[in-house]
Write a structure and sequence with these properties.
With 385 residues, the protein is an alpha/beta fold. Helices cover 34% and strands 26% of the residues. It is built from twelve helices and 18 strands. Strands 1, 2, 8, 9, 10, 11, 17 and 18 form an eight-stranded mixed beta sheet that branches. The chain has a seven-stranded mixed beta sheet with strand order 6-5-13-14-15-12-16. It has a three-stranded antiparallel beta sheet with strand order 3-7-4.
Length: 385
């Protein structure tokens, strides 16, 4: 049996980030990744802000494929609301390369990486956890579940479940005809019930893109049905008419952060804890931010040799302080959005076609902190009351 102070289930960017922070303090860390290669399966649109690079210390030039300056939001009848365009608001990154660089960072700090290590069984014995994979048996003082939306760690220890799941389907494509500065967003019950569809240009020529959509689990049809229809949609066709799919993307997105993300000798982080932006489905920034809180609490508890629930509760206090209020507000905005009919969607996009309002959106809009926009809008219009 192999013994480590910390075992992290999940070799994605959140697990890798937590491992880096803990390993650099000279604690022994194991990362267990079920796939045979880091970043093997893509399940993310890869659109982030520069905050993600600030948190991970990865140089922009190494992973950024394109800089996004704005978005064209298409109503169900294809009325277009254009926002941004004045400066860089987001970055399209190479997600596979990003994942690999994060894991490489953790290896340099001393973490051991176990690939093809799907956890078959997890047991808690007194003050330790034991994990059994096909090839290894690992014993650890602290177990961290960074194993995604369907977390085995979360389920093994009966943590709360996320409030809902979105189902996402997409692809990387070539031969597109896009303005490389703008993301195209499509809303409507017929296009993506419960969420939206997107086209993100991933090179400076607008000829490569990541496309996709998410739907609620209670959508009338499977998500793949809507993705197939998206490729044929008359409003989307001009952008994708002769495109070729080079890689498929699929995954679930957990919405609604867990009420509790720790227990004796155990913590959950990232998608496993549903630390995801409810308005956009983005999990990298909040996951990394919470990952920093997770590693801080882990280091404190390891130094004091106290892995009790009481000691690890510092983790939840920290991440709630950092981004908990924003995620809670995002859940409220999402619950309102879900109730919008296509007719109401048309109405709001129509009313937002106002230079003064667009200037407010451009100045205060922030995909990591959408609540920053609400107060300035309310001051200038009764539309959102």
């Amino acid at each position: 049996m192999l013994e480590y102070e910390v075992a992290i289930v999940g070799g994605g960017p959140i697990g890798g980030h937590v491992a880096t922070k803990i390993a650099e303090k000279k604690f022994s860390v194991a990362i267990l990744e079920k796939n045979k290669e880091i970043g093997q399966y893509l399940n993310c649109a890869g659109l982030v802000t520069s905050r993600v690079l600030d948190l991970t210390k990865i140089p922009k030039k190494e992973i950024v494929q394109n800089e996004i300056k704005g978005a064209n939001i298409h109503s169900p009848s294809n009325k277009i609301l254009t926002i941004g365009g004045d400066k860089t608001h987001a970055l399209a990154i190479d997600r596979t390369l990003f994942d690999k660089k994060i894991i490489k960072q953790s290896e340099k700090k001393g973490s051991d990486i176990f690939l093809k290590s799907n956890v078959k069984q997890i047991k808690k014995i007194e003050n330790y956890c034991e994990l059994i994979t096909l090839n290894n048996q690992i014993k650890c003082k602290l177990l961290i579940g960074a194993d995604g939306p369907n977390s085995k760690v979360r389920k093994s220890f009966s943590f709360p479940e996320p409030k809902e799941y979105l189902i996402g389907v997409g692809a990387e494509v070539t031969n597109t005809k896009l303005d490389p500065n703008f993301v195209e967003i499509f809303v409507g019950k017929k296009i993506a019930p419960g969420f939206f569809a997107w086209i993100i240009p991933t090179n400076k020529d607008g000829t490569n893109a990541r496309i996709g959509l998410c739907t609620s689990k209670d959508a009338p049809n499977p998500t793949k049905y809507y993705f197939t229809k998206m490729l044929k949609n008359k409003y989307i066709q001009p952008y994708l008419k002769n495109c070729k799919i080079t890689r498929n993307i699929a995954g679930a997105i957990p919405i609604g952060p867990l009420r509790k993300t720790y227990d004796d000798n155990i913590m959950l982080v990232g998608d496993a804890a549903a630390q995801v932006k409810p308005t956009s489905g983005g999990g990298l920034y909040p996951g990394l931010l919470c990952g920093s809180c997770c590693s801080k609490a882990a280091i404190y508890s390891l130094k004091n040799n106290d892995l009790s629930s009481e000691s690890l509760s510092n983790y939840q206090k920290e991440w709630k302080k950092e981004i908990g209020i924003e995620l809670r507000k995002g859940s409220r905005y999402r619950s309102i959005y879900k109730r919008f009919s296509d007719k109401k969607m048309e109405k709001y996009i129509d009313k937002l076609q106002n230079p003064a309002l667009i200037n407010i959106i451009n100045e205060f809009g922030d995909i990591d902190y959408p609540s920053k926009l609400i107060k300035p809008l309310l001051k200038n219009t009764k539309l959102f009351i």
